[in-house]
Write a structure and sequence with these properties.
2 domains, Jelly Rolls, 47% strand, mainly beta, 31 strands
Length: 492
């Protein structure tokens, strides 16, 4: 993947977060004229709905930095008469608040959004701090106007924008976690289906830490969190029929049942769960970290080479069994943690988790016909490939590092053969530094990756392949989703 100089992702985790919902103290503000109570967990609905089924949901994180989210639901009224349901769509918002001095909270490196949210909630701040006794506890009903603008919150039913009547703020027991419930009504016609679309943007940065002088961690590390309250599905009739989750590229989710990996489309990783009723407290949380740093300047200052023993081991499901050949020479590669002097071009570079290193071969035919043999310890649902010799995490002009991608051959066609010689997959690679993803099911067993065709380099006849990352799971169900009238518009 080509990574902008100012942003380098170093940690990505997508996890299913299980835990009991926080029970904030009831201060009486819930007791409205319509009897609104917090009894239904995520409070998407005021009461349980024995007559309305949430049949399908498409959930998409559209922009990582902005936390731009789109959730589309298909409901069905099982009754033969009209029905109106009182609802409150929940947004969980996490922010960093530390006690700097007794009874005073500090927001740290606040970008202004958190301060604006607190101001809209009636919490007075002095710069980026506020007193403990100024932060409310429990729940409170508020005018939603300012919060709707801040979160760019919109809700539409069958294309018609709905009115958000109020906002219930759940402050919990102290600063750090806040749940906002945007209250509205959903009318349903007798026996009919209805599509509800919710969009909002919630900046996801939760913490920032400076790391000056740390030779292996230059720059400033920033942490991000995106939450989605899945338990909204728990207050509707029956189970949720099908939910599709779409997340941006670069993430490596490890979702447990009932989630299944479906495939990759337009750069989005797709997961699905079927016939499922999330329990209270069963929510999604997406966490990642990036580092803002001037890596070229960092590499100029490095005096001690990186010890390969210090590199994190890759959790690759592929076990190298051998190769037809590899280039015996060595060369420096430039990693986020430092400079690896005299890195080899042996075939194990394909499975080391480092796109900057590469397996390289040199033959009169440019490596066509050369192979790597490997075993997979479990079934795979996706293969991600970094083509060519990328050499550095970001461009390092002092060494002209990125020119080596074009100076050497790159792989154009890669054949994956089973151990009996039959073709499991033929991959047509693009001539790009970007990570390339292929939806394919490879069962546990032994395979060969064979170079079948190449892109010619401008200077050398060495052919390089940077990384082969196998993602565990089985790619299933994409055809069924793409033919479903509800999901197909999102998957085109």
């Amino acid at each position: 993947m080509t990574i902008p100089r100012h942003v380098l992702p170093v940690c990505v985790l997508l996890a299913l977060v299980l835990g009991a919902p926080r029970a904030g103290a009831d201060d009486g503000s819930w007791a409205t004229g319509r009897g609104y109570t917090p009894a239904e967990g995520a409070l998407y609905s005021e009461t349980g709905n024995p007559d309305v089924v949430m049949e399908k949901e498409y959930l998409e994180l559209r922009d990582v930095g902005l936390g731009a989210t789109r959730a589309v639901f298909q409901f069905r009224n099982a009754r033969d008469e009209p029905l109106t349901v009182e609802c409150a769509f929940p947004i969980r918002f996490d922010f960093t608040a530390r006690q700097s001095v007794p009874e005073t909270w500090d927001l740290g490196d606040d970008n202004g959004f958190v301060s604006d949210v607190l101001a809209a909630l009636g919490v007075p701040t002095a710069g980026t701090s506020f007193r403990d006794d100024q932060y409310p506890r429990g729940r409170k009903e508020l005018d939603p106007a300012k919060l709707l603008r801040l979160f760019e919150f919109r809700i539409l039913q069958d294309g018609r924008e709905l009115t958000v009547e109020s906002c219930i703020a759940d402050f919990g027991e102290g600063p750090g976690h806040l749940v906002l419930h945007f209250r509205h009504q959903l009318p349903f016609s007798p026996g009919g289906t209805s599509v509800v679309t919710v969009t909002y943007a919630m900046p996801t940065r939760s913490a920032t830490s400076a790391e000056p002088g740390a030779m292996r961690s230059p720059g400033v590390s920033r942490e991000f969190t995106w939450n989605y309250v899945l338990e909204t599905a728990s207050s509707w009739k029956d189970r949720l029929g099908t939910i599709v989750l779409a997340v941006p590229p670069g993430f490596h989710p490890d979702l447990e049942a009932p989630w299944q990996y479906v495939g990759t489309l337009k750069g989005q990783l797709l997961y699905t769960a079927e016939n499922w009723k999330p329990a209270p407290g069963e929510n999604l949380s997406l966490e990642w970290r990036d580092t803002q740093a001037d890596y070229p300047e960092f590499w100029r200052q490095v005096t001690e080479p990186l010890d390969p023993e210090d590199l994190a081991s890759s959790d690759s499901p592929a076990v190298l069994l051998g190769a037809s050949s590899f280039l015996p020479e060595k060369a420096d590669v430039f990693l986020p943690r430092g400079i690896w002097r005299n890195a080899p071009f042996d075939p194990s570079r394909l499975f080391d988790g480092l796109p900057e290193t590469a397996w390289a071969v040199r033959t009169p035919r440019g490596g066509i016909g050369e192979w790597v043999r490997f075993a997979l310890d479990s079934d795979m649902g996706r293969l991600e490939i970094a083509n060519g010799w990328q050499r550095s995490a970001v461009d390092f002009p002092d060494k002209d590092t990125w020119s080596y991608f074009g100076k050497n051959n790159r792989v154009k066609t890669l054949d994956i053969l089973r151990d009996d010689g039959s073709l499991a997959a033929r991959l047509q690679l693009a001539d790009t530094r970007e990570v390339q993803r292929f939806n394919m099911t490879l069962h546990a067993g032994t395979y060969r990756a064979v170079i079948a065709d190449i892109f010619r380099g401008s200077r050398w006849n060495d052919t390089c392949l940077g990384e082969m990352s196998f993602i565990r799971g089985t790619a299933v169900g994409f055809e069924a989703l793409s033919s479903d009238p509800f999901f197909s518009p999102f998957l085109k």
